[in-house]
Amino acid sequence: MIEEKFDAIVVGAGMSGNAAALAMAQRGMKVLQLERGEYAGSKNVQGAILYADMLEKLIPDFRDDAPLERHLVEQRFWIMDDRSHLGVHYRSEDFNEERPNRYTIIRAQFDKWFSSKVREAGATVLCETTVTELARDAHGKVIGVRTDRRDGEIHADVVVLAEGVNGLLGTRARLRERPKPDKVALAVKEMHFLPRETIEAHFNLKGDEGVVVEAAGTISSGMTGMGFIYANKECISIGIGCIVADFQRTGETPYGLLDRFKRHPSVAPLIEGSEVKEYSAHLIPEGGYKAIPQLYGDGWVVVGDAAQLNNAIHREGSNLAMTSGRIAAEAIVQVKSRSHPMTAANLSVYKKMLDDSFVIKDLKKHKDMPMLMHTNSQNFFLTYPQLVSRAMQNYVRVDGTPKAEKEKVTLKSFVNARSWSGLFGDAFRLARAWR
């Protein structure tokens, strides 16, 4: 057993764990961070989007040395059928600002850098260390962790669980339920390497400008899911994710969906000639507000994906993870500064602070969207994309047919597919869930 006692132990070195460990170390707390990988980010090869505002609150000058890929100047949303897409693009020169708002990153590189900042702040970081269970006192209060190291048990006033959506530590300790298949998505990604100038030509970029493509439609075969493409400096991250319960129901495979997505006529030219060097799969919490578990207890708090803090509607995860980690740290520091014990009653300040943040307010706003999308996946991800594609082709194709007749054909196709009551019902449910 390590005789040294810590103010806090953080389990995990992802976005939320690094944020929590850093924020506590910056405030003078004695922090131990445990990571099962060889180094922070070693098990994470995917590309991602970094939201600058959240990181600036922790590291104001992060742009000086963080391994950033491209700052985003364009967002594309595609509604796809098997042979076409209808796109909405937003591009602004305003995003070529001195301090850009969003960046693409490669998590393996970024997490390693983030962890180095945790060490610089004074925290102790131990990698290749698996936490096997929580240590408790005779009253059930968490007083530390047990690990697979020879020295075993390590004590601390509070444990921060930042172990990810599928972390077993919290579920084994019965602090939360294991995520249900309809509350979690399985996403697969590939990294396609191309010369920098080729990527810039394919996406109409210059310098360090970047673009993100997010796509929904028949690419998910009627399941609740989305595809995505991130332009990095010398590679393209491309992937697709769907609800696990849908994979179980349909028998579809993630790699099968990804292969079809890559071969789509709108996607294939973007990655033509590329070399695939990395493939990864990971789980993403998709349950939203209604899936958030108990966030605190006697001697523990939970943050990030382990707390189901992911905004699936706006595709935001890393910012919620970093924010929850920082807020948890601030709550713990507050309790410690008052010389109060780390009881559930005192740590409840974490939930109060989180409830006042954009994290919970945004998730609460869209609390009904996950269920709506899942129970109506055939309509929203198959029927409507096909109808929209036919309507657009009918609109732009000039073949001598009077426009009034074309409009009647388009309207009839929607009514035949969903009926008037179905159309109005879908619109009403979508509007009500969105507000």
From TrEMBL:
The keyword tRNA processing does not apply. Its cofactor is FAD. Keywords: FAD, Flavoprotein, Oxidoreductase. The keyword Flavoprotein applies. Pfam families: ETF-QO_FixC_C, FAD_oxidored. One of its GO terms (molecular function) is FAD binding. InterPro entries: FAD/NAD-bd_sf, FixC-like, FixC-like_C. Residues 369-435 form the FixC-like C-terminal domain. Belongs to the ETF-QO/FixC family. Part of an electron transfer system. This is Protein FixC. It comes from Bradyrhizobium valentinum.
